[in-house]
Every structure is written in C-alpha cells, then in structure tokens.
Amino acid sequence: MTAPPGTARPTRDDRPSPDPDAQLPGAIQLGHWRGIALRAHWSTAITVFLVADILAVSLPITAPHHSRADYWITGLGGGGVFVKEILAHELAHAAVARHYRMPVRSVTLWMLGGVTALGGDAPTPRAEVAIAAAGPATTFVIAAMAALGAWLIPSGLLTAALSWLAVMSLVLAVFNLLPAAPLDGGRVLRGIVWWRLRDRDRANTVAASAGRGLGVVLIAQTNFGPLAGYLGGLWLVLLGWFIRSGAIAEQAVGRTNRLADVPVERAMSPVGVIVPQWWTVQQVVAQLEPARPAQRVLVAVDIDGKVRAAVTPYDLARVPAARRDEVRIADLTRVAPPVVVELGTPLAKVAPRLQVGKFAVVVDETGRPVGIVTAADIEAVMTLTELGVRHSDDQSSSYDADRASHV
Q1: Which ranges in 113-230 belong to alpha helices (H)?
Q2: Are residues 278 and 216 in the same domain?
Q3: How does pLDDT run across 234-258, given as a tens digit for each residue?
Q4: Domain count across the chain
Q5: More confident residue, 347 or 359
Q6: For residue 90, which of 107, 246, 264, 316 is within the disulfide window of CB 3.0 to 4.6 Å?
Q7: What percent of the chain has pLDDT over 90?
Q8: Closest Cα partner for 317 from 291, 339, 298?
Q9: Would you state the pLDDT for residue 395?
Q10: What are the φ/ψ torsions at residue 313 (nearest 5 degrees)?
C-alpha cells in the first residue's frame, strides 16, 4: 500500500513556494486541470508495480482458476486506478482551496501519495478544515463506488479487484484522517485548535507534535508490532519516517512564520572580511586578525564587487599549508554563489534559504555586502520572539558597514 495522499504545506506569498519539482527532481508534466499543473514523479511507477504485485498474489486466493497473465493484467489495471484515486484525492483539495479563493500551483504524484501545492495559508479555520477534509471525503466516495461495483458486477476476477480497491480505499481514508500532521487529519486538527484558541501558530504546533508522535509509533512497530519482520512492517517504517519528517518541517515553518515582520538586519552579523575571489588562500590568511570574531564568514567578490562566494576559516584550514600559495578562493569547494538578500528582507523569507544546503546568507545594501546571517542567528532571534521580546521600529539595526574589512 502507499502512504495517504496529503496537501502540501501552504506557504505565505513572501516566501519561496513548496514547488514539488524542487522537492522531487524527476517529476514529469502530465497536463493541466483548470489551470493547475499536474505532475508525476518517476517513483509513482513503483506504486503501480506494488499494487499490481499485491493483486497478482492475492487474486488467485479470492478468484481462482485464472491465468497468471490475467492476474497481472488485472493487477496493473488496479495499480493505475489506485494512482488515479490519489489524483482525485488531491484534486478535491485543490477544488475546495479554489472555492476559498486560494491559489493552487500544482498537484504532484509520487511513491508515497500526492502533494497539492497551495499558494498561501487558509484564510479561516473553517477553510482549513474544509480543504483538508475534501481529500478523505473523496476517497470514501471512491470506496463506496468500488464496493457497489463489486456487488453489481458478476465477474469473479473483476469483483475481487474492486473489493480490494474498496477495502484499501476505506483504510486509506481512515488512516489519512488520523489527527497528526502532515496527514489531512492533522490539518483538520489544526483548524479545530485554531478555531478554539484563535492562535494559528499554536494550532500548528499541536498538529505537528501529534505527527511526530505518530511517526515514532509507526517506526517502532517493526520491533514490537505484529508486522515485525515482514515487508509491510518495513513499509510502515518508511511511512513513519515520512510523517515524522513532514511534521518536523511543518513545525519549523510555523515558527518561521513568526518572523514575517522581522527584518534581516535584526539577525545579521557584520561582514568580517571582504576579499577578491582571485586571491590565494595564503593572501587571505595573512589578513585575518585573531581578535576579530566577526571573521567567521568571509565574502569573496569579483572585480565588479559582486558577491561570488562565502567561505569560513575552516574552509581555508582544509587547504594543505604547502598549497595555500597556489589555491585561490575561487577554487574552494564552496565557490558556488551564496544566497544574497537585500537589507530589509523579512527573516521569514531568509530562513528557508538556509534549509537547502546553504550555511550562510549574505546581506547586501546597494551592491555592497554588509552582513551575514546563519541558521544559528535566525534561531536566536526566533527564540527571543517566542519569549515575547520584540524589536521596536526605532531600534537600531545594530550593524555598521564600516566595520567590514575590505582587503
């Protein structure tokens, strides 16, 4: 079985959207539905094969006296129908989101279900619950239709396949309604808590905490549960890991949302050293001063002053002493251009950029690098914000561009 489909985490418009292509490289375009891009990751084929294999093994028990080819043909057809069911589930989310005037960017299918990328937060708790519940409701309808078809169609093989689809759809819908993020039930829970407490961030924390707990339970079942030692148990481990990871990510996003009105200069440290990218490591080392802790990140620029790299003293130390006179800053492993943001950019927009393999973000003011922001800096500001420590509008940004050393 596959994991339950679920809606993608909605994001505010001032942050990068959760583009499924970015998260799932290898997704191919299938077409459009009312302007919504429909995509499928190559791993969707694994879902079709697994369903086909399950049916090819189980159908001889419930519908004997057919050829092996018949079982596999029916199984592949069942796998295709199951994937279409996941697509219908996701499109139900999309349709209800459109009803509440929310932009829907895309729907992407993959091995563990589907992802509906929404372009913003649900406007009300009612909308949150309605959008989340639309998917499982559609799956319940499909289960009922499959059960009705199994009752009406006399064919033994097709009846058995429809019966399996009805039972699996019912299990899928029920599981997906468990009150734990990122499952749809977790989003229903979030909407209810949001309505009761009038606090969206608190509701997100509650749903994410439940998701982390469910993930741990699913992972632990391989050692203590009845499925221990079987393939189904290993699949539940993968599902548990997915749910736990998704819950942790959603909780992090909920915390990041609190930084929407905090400018980047509240977290940044001044640039310690700005060096030409063509300088050798030895030339840069000669300019470092032991009493300047701000030198934790060094910014390399090209001849026009444009930021080309950000390196740390640790990067310099990795170069053997015998080669420091020949290795240039541009030759170091982190030579890929770092993320550069303008002064005044909200930290809620900066934080996700540090979650994609970047160790620092460079802050620019009118073409000149003036600051560095790391994940630790954002975490510090986030903690103060959660403690109720707020920055006043007239508070100094605490940076001084003249402190940066240009060498």
Answers
A1: 125-152, 156-176, 184-197, 200-224
A2: no
A3: 667 778 888 888 787 777 676 677 7
A4: 2
A5: 347
A6: 107
A7: 38
A8: 298
A9: 44
A10: -55, -30
- Residues taking part in catalysis: 90
CA distances from 369 to 176, 207, 278 (A): 47, 40, 17
Q: What one-character-per-residue DSSP string does 208-231 give?
A: HHHHHHHHHHHHHHHHHSTTTTSH
Q: Containing domain of residue 270, as a range?
A: 264-406
Tokens of 32: 């459009």
Which domain-ending residue is among 210, 228, 259?
259
Query: In terms of domains, do 294 and 390 share one?
Result: yes
CA atoms within 13 A on the CB side of 192: 12
pTM as predicted: 0.69
pLDDT digits (tens, 9 = 90+) for 266-304: 888 888 778 898 999 999 888 887 655 555 778 888 888
Structure tokens at 105: 């960017």
In a domain, 243, yes or no: yes
Same domain, 83 and 12: yes
Look up the CATH number of the domain holding residue 380. 3.10.580.10
Please say which residue of 200, 230, 259 terminates a domain: 259
